[in-house]
From TrEMBL:
Keywords attached to this entry: Oxidoreductase
Protein name: Carnitine 3-dehydrogenase
Domain 3-hydroxyacyl-CoA dehydrogenase NAD binding: 20-194
Span of the signal peptide: none
PANTHER family: 3-HYDROXYACYL-COA DEHYDROGENASE FAMILY PROTEIN, 3-HYDROXYBUTYRYL-COA DEHYDROGENASE
Residue ranges of every copy of the 3-hydroxyacyl-CoA dehydrogenase C-terminal domain listed in the record: 198-269
Family affiliation: Belongs to the 3-hydroxyacyl-CoA dehydrogenase family.
GO molecular function, one term: oxidoreductase activity, acting on the CH-OH group of donors, NAD or NADP as acceptor
Pathway entry: Lipid metabolism; butanoate metabolism
A biological process term (GO) from this entry: fatty acid metabolic process
Amino acid sequence: MTAPSDVFLPPVAPSDVQRITCVGAGVIGGGWVAHFLARGYDVTAWDPGADAARRLRQIVDAAWPALTNLGLAPGASRDRLHIVDDLADALADAQFVQESAPEDLDVKIDLLARIDALTPQGVVISSSTSGYSMSEMQVSAANPGRLVVGHPFNPPYLIPLVEVVGGTRTHSGAVAWASEFFTLVGKSVITMEREVPGFIANRLQEALWREALHMVAEGEATVEQIDTAITDGPGLRWPFHGPCMTFHLAGGEGGMAHMLDHFGPSLKAPWTRLEAPELTPELRDAMVAGCETEADGRTNVELIAERDAKMIAIMQAMQDVSRRE
């Protein structure tokens, strides 16, 4: 990522932002809307899809009980959501923009250029892309220096992680501004020094996902066994320690050094496959059937409510532990 020599001058400091525009209001965009509303901002949303307004309000309403349980910021209200039909109207007085359009490169390139043309000078524009680099997406923008990636995890209104990185034409000041802003709105921010396809968390998640597909394809494990292996195994440690600290602790008094010296040769063992399997109709059907079996008749709405409640319990428990330390 390069930093242009000119000074980056946003119109407001991250702490002074009051009005946010969300472009795209599907699952990710709607989750962002709910999060920003819960943090006490005025949010304007635009989405060209049919029945977008109703679907967005449904997303926000579904998220609100969880957000209320987690704790709303002073002034937080669903009444501060404004849904407009015209993109120019949505961006006219924006102080920060979060784009969450479908993951299509041509769509992203065109939309980010339009957003850039309509957004007040200097306002940072962030993309929720889950895989494209900003260097790829900013090619048609007249002011690419203010375009950054702000990659969230679903649901954005609960999972705190946001990965921030600029493109080759992004100003370093825009990256710093976005990182500070996301921190202020309650996110756990990773500011990446360089672009990596898929960013950090998605690459780690993808490796696990590909190995799961391999095991189902080879008949080595069922969908339910794979999920249980994580939820009742290493996943219980992950809210507190990531894989690196987990292995550090596995090394005992010698820490990571002992773990690597002792277990390093096992890295050559055939414990994983890093090439994606062929997604055959049979594998696709096996994955679908396995998830239906694991859902055991519960609808997606019921599963989401159950997931949110459990995540809140974990997050509240972690907060309680931190207060006692």
